[in-house]
Amino acid sequence: MARITPAAELPTLWTVPDDLWRGFIVPILKKHDPEPPTGRPRIDQRRAFDGILFILRSGCQWNRLPREFGNDSSVHRTFQRWVRLGIFQKLWTALVSYGRRLAWSSSTGSRPTAPWARRASGGSSRQEPHGSGQTGHEAQRADRRRWLPDGGAYRRRQRP
Fold this sequence. Notes:
Layout (H helix, E strand, L loop, with lengths): L17 H15 L12 H14 L13 H14 L1 H20 L8 H6 L24 E3 L6 E3 L4
Helix pairs in contact: 1-4, 2-3
């Protein structure tokens, strides 16, 4: 029986693979964001795109971008230009379709699920809401006060 590889086992893209870069992203950039004929040359677009992926994956601040991706201001400026021109949406679509292609080629008929959809459905990465064994309505407030229905006032719990 063939082993089905769920989408969770696919590697996370931190940099753009060569086939994706040459096959999808370079044609989009050449068509929609060509190098200007005059002025200062732009930064390497592949490094910039890898830096943008790093920011989106890690959630770090732009000014904490590692130097391997280039100057953080230049990468941010490239990102803003691509968003303003509508290029980033095209690039992101190419990246998502590449991920789907990987997911479909690695599985035998199972539909790939986005990571955020797995988390929202209550997978193993779900955190307990208030503590051990307590549900939302049983949990106490952080200041250890209890709600009493007498006019909406908070009172400290009396010890027996």
